[in-house]
């Protein structure tokens, strides 16, 4: 399998090159030339454990890692999960829930970032190179990236977060990690300031190359790839329904895009229900064809307080025919994204019949989110976190009642104690992994929002 850029400037990369490049050098995202059809393998894969299934699904996208090595990498990536299924399905009666929060940081990002950490280490181990990984986080990505990369040979990781603006739990998850290759940078500014520093430093080609900077955000293809697996694994756990709907709480479009690929690989997902909070740029796009940047609202589901979703570009590429007429699709993606960058708005012609009937969309307000947390608890006794609640609210409104509904649960409720307290003031939600962080020594370096300060920090601590 080879990889190319959604904007046409790069093609013919092997998987390992695509992983190390992260963002394509022409500003696009890297995508496989084709999406493999696995329908003829579904019987044979019945009964496989998560890691065995993951190895087989990933192998279809990876031509340059021997099968034994891949199997080892995958097994190591799911060793730290706290249940043997890795991602178990729980049936509530009305709908099924896919629990994606059994990894070390209790959010679904562990599924991809545990794998990416091992993959980086494996590739660097073969080439003898080293990298400095740089990321910006408003909360969940930072701790999951740190847990994926802590203690890894040949890698230093720098995570910027807005000082005092992540939740206390999220900050402890990052700053209590004692490994010497982890550097937390508390920026005196907003998350947008952190992201803008990140962009600026990656645009400085000389600095980027000298310090071999690498990125862990969801533009990295390996993250999407790892996320395809749990859609299949859930379908087997649900006893292989002939058709089912999946509701996905969405921010950066990474999780649901993996579902889109699973569907195109032959998994019988009927509709992908795209659920957003009041940051609803994607929901509006799928209703109108207009992709327009708006103001970012702070909500009870902060991991989805995102306006511009990087993985959306991959979807556009395939939907515009990237598999069969790559150059034409890449030209259209480039025009769309350049128009969007210039004016903050771009439009796609949705009138083409059958352009896309995969997605249905909706959004949940904070009140609806909190009410859903309460309603699910009253009806079933089950506690869901606010992100999962957004998915359940929209999923129930949009589902086809004739077929099963699977709602993806993206975090453990204990990670979002404020929202849980707003919804259910009488109960307290904890988790032993988080309780164990209390009182541990913390490490962070405070920094002004300054590109020069960031550079000197990296110069000081780079590998
Ligand atoms: C990151 C995150 C999301 C959003 O996932 P995307 O892949 O960015 O759409 C949803 N819920 C939680 C808890 C998250 O951490």
Tell me about this structure.
The protein starts with a strand and ends with a helix. It has 463 residues and is an alpha/beta fold. The protein has a 6-stranded mixed sheet, sandwiched between helices. The longest helix is centred in the N-terminal third of the chain and has 19 residues, at 109-127. The chain is 43% helix and 15% strand. Bound molecules: pyridoxal-5'-phosphate (PLP).
In short:
43% of the residues lie in helices and 15% in strands.
Explain the layout of strands and helices.
Elements: E1 3-5, H1 15-21, E2 30-32, H2 50-59, H3 67-78, E3 89-91, E4 96-99, H4 109-127, E5 131-136, H5 140-149, E6 155-162, H6 168-175, E7 182-188, H7 191-203, H8 205-210, E8 213-215, H9 221-237, E9 244-249, H10 254-264, E10 269-276, H11 281-288, E11 290-292, H12 312-319, H13 326-343, E12 345-347, E13 359-363, H14 366-380, H15 386-398, E14 405-409, H16 417-423, H17 432-435, E15 445-448, H18 451-461
Parallel strand pairs: 4-14, 5-6, 5-8, 6-7, 7-15, 9-10, 9-14, 10-13
Antiparallel strand pairs: 1-2, 3-4, 11-12
Helix pairs in contact: 2-3, 2-9, 3-4, 4-5, 4-9, 5-6, 9-10, 12-13, 14-15, 14-16
The chain binds pyridoxal-5'-phosphate (PLP).
Pyridoxal-5'-phosphate (PLP) binds at residues 107, 109, 140, 218, 249-255, 303-304, 387, 410-411.
